[in-house]
């Protein structure tokens, strides 16, 4: 069959309402950063231009999930691919766009655009109970993975941290406090870090970036009997907290290539999934040259235990899993970045220029 060289496109239209039912219109703020419940809408563009050669090229692009705090309004893609489709047929129900180019392609381009609306995510911690009768779909996140294992050593470590805790929420707070006090941001780490929690804790290598900090938090929670998971995503625009947490120009445009960021959430009966972001506490502390005794860090520690500022799009919570269609190299550590292979060779997704991708975001102000 002859290679199709014409430009192909597809669109997946989601919610068409200006504001979805779960989005609450409110300018009320209850934090020291001026963050409100006012919805924020972004148009995000991902552009890919892969090397043309005599190898088969395959590309897996993470797409945003739908939840109570963010809704995808539309996804579209255009390119000169030989095959492309959107799928979530994988162990974590992770939404992704798969594209393939045959050998000797003269050009390998695809542009993905999505519109998304979101608002500050908050949890009502007063509803938390001490029940451990978790729903079946939540129990999955008590199990260990390669990078966030459940082991005798880590369980003993977590139990020691929580020995004075009376409730599940108290345990989570103790682990969060230890994480933000002992983990620190190491700018020499490539990308978001590997997130090998066992190695970090056992060897006391407490420096890292967001995936490292988040994975330690998640692993310790699981070892303490609290369901938890990392959520991989990307910063989209200006933060009310700090330029370290996201920035844009005066018109709301942001170049977000390299803006990937890993957050976390944990489950407590009554309160449900509770957002947390210990990694950004360490990032702001490092980049603003602050200490744990500074008021801003005290405020930030409190805020990021139960809240997220939503200038960030969540992609997925997949970890140590096999993509579909199945790649040559597997399992994959995480899918916060695009993943691609030329035959069996993995492209360096930590290097956007070498890989051939650019991300940008426009907030609709």
UniProtKB/TrEMBL annotation:
Query: Which residue numbers delimit the Transglutaminase-like domain?
Result: 202-280
SUPFAM superfamilies listed in its UniProt record = Cysteine proteinases
Tell me one Pfam family matched here: Transglut_core
Q: What is this protein called?
A: Transglutaminase
Q: Write down the species.
A: Malaciobacter halophilus
